[in-house]
Amino acid sequence: MFEILEHIDGMKGNRAQVVEWIRGRWFATSAAKRAHDPNAQLHQQRKRASNVVTGMQQYGLLDTPRDPLVLTELGSRMLAFAAEPDEGHRLFTSFLLRERYGMELLQIALDVRSRDGAVTKKQIDDELRARGYQVSTNSSYAGKLRQWLEPSGVVDMYWNVDHQILLELGGATPEEIRSWRGLTPPQRAIVEVLRVRGLGNRTPAQSAEVLELLRQRGIEFNAGLVGKQIYEPLVAAGFIERTLKEAGRGGKGGTVQLTQRALDLDVALIDGLELGDVPADLQAELNRSTDSILADLDSADTGVKGVALELLALRVAADVGLMPAEMRLRSAQTGGAEVDLVAEGAHLHFSRWLFQCKNQVAPVSLTVLAKEIGMATLLRAQVVVILTTGAFAKSVVAYAREAAEATAIQIVLLDGDSLANYRAKGPAGLRAELHQFAVGALRRKRRQLAEVPKE
Fold first, then answer.
1. 245 is in which domain, residue-wise?
2. Would you say residue 247 lies in a domain?
3. Are 213 and 109 members of one domain?
4. Quick one: which of 39, 271, 343, 345 has the most CB atoms within 10 Å?
5. Neighbours of 38 (CB within 10 A)
């Protein structure tokens, strides 16, 4: 990298000269399969050399004008470190982590390793798609970015991440990112208010004063549950310290102040990280195994069960190769009804899927299916998936068959037995069951052809 920067500077940015030098330096013997045609081989070598220049532009080292090539401020600072390459690599890594999605990539690598025990490029690409990032079939972006990060030691070729270097160069640890993103809007607002106040006054703030600042910001919260819903989680997460008067009661009294951890946190960095199309609170849970998600469906805590249902919808969609497009969709477009997940796929053709998840003992009723079919029509979806921990009423199964025969919509009904199969056999078991639904739909929809008027 430093050698290229020096030559670009020495050649006054003449693109043709730079490309030819890169070709001779690194690609003079490449494209050997085209050796029978010297002109074609030379063209391929120059193309590869030109790609190096394009990559340096994409990663912030060169300005965007095609010719002449101009070093950016970062490129000039990197050039100054030519005699101290280790420091130069650290500077470049810090830039990539903060400005070129490096932090997101390493976070995903850590989550995949935590969940699956190992990391491959395919797993990284699959996880990127599952989180709503656009990744082409033959994309090499993740692998190339990792290679740019490797010289600093923050990650190696096997996707092992050095947490200490990540903190030094990225400004935040994965744990801090998860912890911050797991906060509710009122909890975040408390920290933000206290951070602003802390710039000039590090003394504890009266709770009543802080809550009034939240009201002025238009933050909605339940005044009767401030202690349980806001303060206690922030104390547990290590963001604030709270002091109540002796024998004090209720959530609104006493004083609060930020911990040093909260003061040091680079909130601007974390909030600036790309999330794909998955909500922040769910991002923090995506490293969990499918088994742990399914286990939480039996929790006595309704909040835990609710998160587990949303994670399950995401995991099912990801395991069948779909990309999330919308979550928690509620609008005039759906008549005020809520769709748990809208996911899309581009396999042999484009398809849009609606997911609705139910965690209940009672059989899912026909009204649920009718509502989903209506929303599928409004949202122009081709597939409706209703997933329940229990069972479906017989009328639901019968109507699903009728709808498959009479409309263009396909309906997939996954019950408690389906989840047990998913748990036992993993994604392969899920895909096999969905394939059976597809085969059944094919047979029923084939009858539609008989209804087409013949000439």
1. 180-265
2. yes
3. no
4. 343
5. 9
Residue where a domain stops, chosen among 80, 108, 129: 80
- The distance from CA 404 to its chain's CA centroid, rounded to whole angstroms, is 33
**What is the spatial distance between Cα 310 and Cα 315, in angstroms, rounded to a whole number?**
9
In order along its 455 residues, the chain shows pLDDT tens digits of 889 999 898 888 899 999 999 999 999 999 889 989 989 999 999 999 998 998 899 889 999 877 899 999 999 999 999 899 999 999 999 999 988 889 989 989 998 998 888 899 889 988 888 887 877 766 788 888 999 999 999 999 999 999 999 989 988 888 888 888 888 889 988 888 888 776 556 678 888 888 888 888 888 888 888 888 999 999 998 999 998 876 555 556 788 888 888 888 888 777 777 667 777 677 778 778 888 999 998 888 888 888 898 899 988 988 888 888 887 765 444 444 567 888 888 777 888 999 999 998 899 999 999 888 888 888 889 999 999 999 999 999 999 888 888 888 899 999 999 999 999 998 888 989 998 888 888 888 877 776 666 66
Decide the pairing of beta strands 410-414 and 383-388: parallel
**Predicted TM-score of the model (pTM):** 0.69
356 three-class SS: strand
Q: Which residues of 156-168 are buried (b: 16+ CB within 10 A; e: fewer)?
A: eeebebeeebbee
Specify whether the backbone of 162 is left (phi greater than 0), alpha (psi in -120 to 50) or beta. beta
Q: Of 23, 58, 80, which residue sits at a domain end?
A: 80
Q: Is 335 contained in some domain? A: yes
Instruction: Look at the chain and report how many structural domains it folds into.
Output: 4
